[in-house]
Design brief:
This protein is mainly alpha-helical. The protein contains nine helices and no strands. Helix 4 (91-126) packs antiparallel against helix 6 (147-162). The longest helix is centred in the first third of the chain and has 37 residues, at 51-87. The two termini are 38 Å apart.
Length: 254
């Protein structure tokens, strides 16, 4: 991204709000539609394996959506906080918020991955998974162990959006979705990995997504915010976490 493009993105979100809404909204809508297609693609291929595998997907997907909701909530809070600082032209605190957002993503993904791994067998038992339990555990453990890439995909794109850079996230999600479509049948049928192949295809494509996002975010040539690890402060992390929780609670109430 050129310096002119970065300047244009910042001027967009600091300028006329009507123009900003028009230019920022449609790439976000397209990105959300693309992200949902991941699961439909997985279900389409897994259905060819048999009824137990398809039932396993049906059991895991509600848990997956709850799981991803934590990442989406974190991403929304980070996006809001950074955008507020940019609106106040306080770029130092905007950059600092992005660093803390990434750190929170790491901590939250580790904790939730541990919780899901320990509780998944009991949750499936409560859901009366029956003969689909083995397939559900195989798919679910792979997906939930990839918590970081699932969370960071949301947070990384949210950081870009907070600067007005929405199109690159849309292009990246489109490319990785196409890659997932290609990898699904290869892993499931060619490599004989079954339902686990669908999970690995998703994690691999999300990992590629994360690698590109990490490069974009830490690269001075492609990003406006500056990232310095020495700005990490545990007190600020707790304060920002409290702010994010408040924001999520407010969204649920209203």
């Amino acid at each position: 991204m050129t310096n002119e493009s970065k300047k244009e993105n910042i001027e967009l979100i600091l300028g006329d709000y009507k123009k900003a809404i028009r230019k920022l909204s449609w790439p976000i809508v397209v990105s959300l539609l693309i992200s949902v297609s991941y699961n439909f693609i997985d279900c389409m291929w897994v259905a060819k394996l048999g009824s137990n595998e398809l039932a396993a997907m049906g059991l895991i997907l509600p848990l997956y959506f709850v799981f991803v909701a934590f990442g989406s909530g974190l991403a929304t809070g980070v996006n809001s906080l950074i955008a507020r600082y940019i609106g106040a032209r306080n770029f130092k605190n905007a950059s600092n918020s992005a660093v803390h957002g990434i750190f929170l993503t790491i901590i939250a993904s580790i904790l939730l991955a541990i919780v899901m791994n320990l509780s998944l067998p009991y949750i499936l038992a409560l859901m009366h998974a029956g003969s689909a339990t083995t397939a559900a555990l195989e798919y679910g453990n792979i997906i939930f162990n990839g918590a970081f890439v699932l969370f960071y995909s949301n947070v990384g794109i949210a950081i870009l959006r907070s600067e007005g850079d929405v199109k690159r996230g849309m292009y990246l999600m489109t490319a990785t979705t196409i890659l997932n479509i290609i990898l699904d049948p290869i892993f499931i049928f060619n490599f004989n990995m079954g339902i686990g192949g669908a999970a690995w295809a998703t994690i691999i494509t999300e990992t590629i997504n994360c690698i590109v996002l990490i490069y974009w975010i830490i690269s001075k040539r492609t990003h406006t915010l500056m990232f310095h690890l020495e700005t990490l402060n545990i007190t600020q992390i707790l304060q920002k976490r409290f702010y994010l929780l408040q924001y999520q609670i407010h969204q649920k109430i209203y």
